[in-house]
Amino acid sequence: MEIILFFAVFAVGIIIIVATNYTHFSSYSVLPTFAEYQAKHPGLVQRGRVECEACGGTKIFVRGLYSATDSKKTHGCTTCGKALYRSKS
Q1: How crowded is residue 77: how many other Cβ atoms within 10 Å of its Cβ?
Q2: Sequence-distant (≥ 6) Cβ neighbours of residue 24 within 8 angstroms
Q3: Which of 17, 73, 77, 84, by CA, is between 20 and 30 Å from 31?
Q4: pLDDT tens by residue, 15-54
Q5: φ, ψ (nearest 5 deg) of residue 72
Q6: Which residues are CB-contacts of 53 (< 8 A; sequence separation ≥ 6)?
Q7: 48 φ/ψ sector (left φ>0, alpha ψ -120 to 50, else beta)
Q8: CA angle at residue 48 from 89 to 85, to 5 degrees?
């Protein structure tokens, strides 16, 4: 009986991990690339400066999708928190 409970808890843990990773990846994949963001908002990307489409903020954060060293990055507004575009390093 204890072994069944162990495997049930283990299975739920795996499902949670997979669902969390899928959510991160799916939110990443719907973001535009930098080139797409620039094409959609040409007035917000000028002279090496990017502005937020929501609030006009100019301080942009860069976060790895799963960790700080992840090659997949999201770029967002520090002021309002909106994710703006994605990149790969």
Answers
A1: 21
A2: 65, 66
A3: 17
A4: 666 555 544 445 778 899 999 999 999 999 998 899 999 9
A5: -90, 125
A6: 37, 41, 44, 82, 84
A7: left
A8: 45
